[in-house]
């Protein structure tokens, strides 16, 4: 039965490396459980097998990436076996890949205060590469965008769609149309208000010189378009990346959530409402400390 499955993989134009990897991973599983390919296996059997790989009686535990690769091979094999009526039961239906303790938090990257200050300096000093672009205009616009992403926690599409009428400079608040057309209102801090005020004053000057700016209803425009597109914003942000740290617009939203939790003494509900999260569990992810936070905590222990 196993060889029939392998032949099926080869018909699907799987690379020889993939076919060999799947075959070896499945054979290891069958040998560990001392069963034939058509032997009956339960989800409990699989879970015990996984536990043995993570907590072996001898030697080092298997890498999580290797275990997950083997699980994927087993999912494919048992799914094929049930589909072709070789087996009646698929033990892999309830089995999920393993996550490392730090995996979720590692996906959430934010800027430290030092990194944010360094970024502002790069925005100021980075030369304009495109011909015909006003360096002062680009600097003012890019700086305002970075502040709005960081101090209001906007998603990149939300920022692209912010209109002049969404900014209430008198009451110091921003109307944001989020996911599912849900509307939320975010207060402007004094810092953000000043940055947006400066940009709006500069924008008003540009509207007297550029027709597409005068006609635009959006807060941010591009060199030729009345609206700065999502892809344009992404490319602009990425252009300020460092060799070892790629910047994305969503990283500033992460930064907003992280900084706001600190400012509110970990008031998750306030941050959830400000960020527009529909589920508070999404906000709770930002409570996890970064690796550098953990390292600093360990270093702060008493020294003898």
Main attributes of the structure:
single chain, DNA polymerase, domain 1, hpI Integrase, Chain A, 56% helix, elongated
Write up what this structure looks like:
- This protein is mainly α and 304 residues long.
- The protein folds into 2 domains: 2-98, Orthogonal Bundle (DNA polymerase, domain 1), CATH 1.10.150; 107-289, hpI Integrase, Chain A, CATH 1.10.443.10.
- The protein contains 15 helices and 3 strands.
- The chain has a 3-stranded antiparallel β-sheet with strand order 1-2-3.
- Helix 2 (16-33) crosses helix 4, helix 7 (135-152) packs antiparallel against helix 9 and helix 7 (135-152) crosses helix 12 (249-263).
- The radius of gyration is 27 Å and the shape is elongated.
Write a brief structural summary.
The chain is mainly α.
How are helices and strands ordered from N to C? HHHHHHHHEEEHHHHHHH
CATH topology of the largest domain: hpI Integrase, Chain A
Looking at the overall shape, the CATH architecture of the largest domain is Orthogonal Bundle
CATH class of the largest domain: Mainly Alpha
Q: From the helix content, strand content and strand pairing, which structural class follows?
A: mainly alpha
Strand order, largest beta sheet = 1-2-3
Principal-axis shape: elongated
Q: What is the C-alpha radius of gyration, as a whole number of Å?
A: 27 Å
């Amino acid at each position: 039965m196993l060889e029939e499955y392998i032949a099926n993989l080869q018909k699907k134009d799987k690379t020889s490396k993939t076919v060999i990897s799947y075959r070896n991973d499945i054979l290891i599983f069958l040998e560990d459980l001392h069963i034939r390919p058509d032997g009956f296996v339960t989800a409990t059997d699989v879970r015990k097998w996984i536990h043995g790989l993570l907590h072996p009686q001898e030697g080092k535990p298997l890498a999580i990436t290797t275990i997950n690769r083997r699980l994927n091979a087993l999912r494919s094999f048992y799914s094929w076996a049930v589909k072709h009526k070789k087996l009646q039961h698929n033990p892999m239906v309830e089995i999920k890949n393993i996550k490392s303790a730090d995996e979720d938090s590692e996906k959430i990257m934010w800027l430290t205060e030092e990194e944010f200050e360094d970024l502002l300096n790069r925005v100021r000093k980075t030369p304009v590469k495109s011909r015909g672009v006003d360096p002062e205009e680009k600097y003012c616009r890019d700086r305002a965008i970075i502040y709005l992403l960081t101090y209001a926690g906007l998603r990149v599409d939300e920022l692209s769609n912010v209109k002049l009428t969404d900014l209430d400079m008198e009451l110091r608040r921003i109307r944001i149309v989020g996911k599912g057309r849900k509307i939320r209102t975010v207060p402007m801090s004094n810092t953000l208000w000043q940055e947006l005020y400066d940009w709006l004053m500069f924008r008003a000057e540009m509207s007297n010189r550029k027709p597409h700016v005068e006609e635009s209803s959006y807060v941010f425009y591009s060199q030729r378009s009345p609206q700065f597109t999502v892809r344009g914003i992404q490319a602009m942000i990425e252009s300020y990346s460092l060799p070892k740290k790629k910047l994305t617009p969503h990283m500033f939203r992460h930064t907003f959530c992280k900084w706001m939790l600190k400012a509110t003494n970990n008031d998750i509900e306030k941050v959830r409402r400000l960020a527009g999260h529909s589920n508070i569990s999404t906000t709770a992810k930002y409570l996890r400390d970064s690796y550098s936070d953990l390292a600093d905590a360990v270093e702060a222990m008493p020294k003898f």
